[in-house]
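Review form for a predicted model. The reviewer records the input and the model, then writes brief findings.
Reviewer: anonymous (R2)
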Amino acid sequence: MLIFVLFQIYDGPNMLSQLLGRYCGSDMPPTIKSNSNSLVVVFKSDWSYEEEGFTLSYETLCGGEFHADTGIIKSPFYPNSYHHSRTCIYEIIQPSDKGIVLTVEDMDIEGRDQNCYYDYVEIFDGDNENATQLATLCGDEENMPNTPYYSTHNFMYIKFSTDSNINGRGFKLNYTTINRSK
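Model under review:
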């Protein structure tokens, strides 16, 4: 008897997104980590045989590496409220002949003063938090910078840190790459 049961997982909002895996039978698939904030799971079965099916569990992570030449970086659950007591690291990694331009499109992060003591986004010109700091951001549209941040390297390191108290909708950042002169 031929039994057809299959599920596929795509890294993005539809089946045109990158296929992360195709699984069938009773073998457990490995842990899957997406590179986006959405996954599509497609389950297919034939008509001839029934079993219990499957159970999925997931965990929302924050941070990640961004290798595309342009992209959007959002805090977890944006535009809904981010979670308490988190530290998320976002790394923009580009080829060595590229620079990065980062623009803040939206921001609602606890902290209305210039100290950004509670929740904050730090932007670094390099590949870690020991690199030159370009900004520490918190607050809302009133505190949002209206000029972009430029890297002098092919890396940009962004740290989002939250405390255990008040939270907001978070942030939305847009990055593009530019050719660096040698």
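Findings: The chain has a mean pLDDT of 86.
Further findings: The longest strand covers residues 98-108.
Recommendation: see findings above.
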